[in-house]
Amino acid sequence: MTSQNLAPIKIDALVKDYGSLRAVDNVSFEMKPGEIFGLLGPNGAGKTTLISTIMTLEEPTSGSVQVFGHDVTKEPQITKTLTGFVPQELIHHGYFDVEEIMNFHSGYFGLRKNKERIDWLLQKLSLYEHRKKKVKALSGGMKRRLLIAKALVHDPKVLLLDEPTAGGDIELREQLWTFVEELKSQGLSILLTTHYIEEAEQLCARVGILQKGKLRRVGPTRELVKELTKREIGIRLKQEPTSDPTHPMFLRRVGSELIFETPSTMGAGDLLDQLNLDLKQVADLNIREGSLEDALRRVLGDKVATGGAV
Ligand SMILES: Nc1ncnc2c1ncn2[C@@H]1O[C@H](COP(=O)(O)OP(=O)(O)O)[C@@H](O)[C@H]1O
Ligand SMILES: [Mg+2]
What we know:
disordered C terminus, 4-stranded antiparallel beta sheet, 2 domains, elongated, 10 helices, single chain, alpha/beta, binds magnesium ion, binds adenosine-5'-diphosphate
């Protein structure tokens, strides 16, 4: 059913209108097999709407969505079986226990004997010892982990995670990302949205940046950061200079340190050459690379809130 070369998710000219609001505006991109792809953008950018169309929770106004070559509106049974989905909102089945939820969900996919996988998932997500607890007795973090276990119960080939760590503590986030890396190493393709840009930078080979429904950028994370950000090079001199350099990339001087803003492709050696500086005159070099957060700020204007949240 799946071929190794088919895109796990292929979005083509997707438009989704809610009345007069265009929540997704002519978006096209495709994921590569086995990659972790990050969908980033401020609140209201259209991330959840886009994921909802993959899950057939929302119907596209126009354009198409394919999962491993199958159109989600034409073959929803196939695409839903291939996909695991962790929604942004917590859902409640309060009166069932953890194991019952996992068994029900296996049954939904026609899997009657799934104990081995269920136990593995519950162990991986630190829920095994809580498997007899009613959902209403679980903490927020445990409910979130149960949603993730549930999404994986039928061994999907692509996993959609919509803000899986929002509001979670650092322990939950670390545990989840370690698990996500493990799933990726087993060949699972993963599409995620997250508020934690630093984490997206570490995890995602490629990212797409959405703003007001439009895909502003898509590409390999490293390349986007390189293209969109500058690096700061600080040159601390052994002797404090008497005047500031006239170099066009000069930013400011702090005591004996001259700070320059250079393209990400420019090395410190080139800068020293251009300044006619000898290494003997230099006490220290301080290089600060641009980050994905800087890149986002560049694309979105000042929409990146403080603390790494988007
Ligand atoms: N069911 C809906 N009805 C009307 N408008 C919606 C609905 N769902 C989302 N929207 C609007 O669509 C836009 C995109 O929302 P959403 O996809 O939730 O963004 P994100 O997940 O990036 O925060 C927002 O302006 C939101 O208010
Ligand atoms: Mg959302």
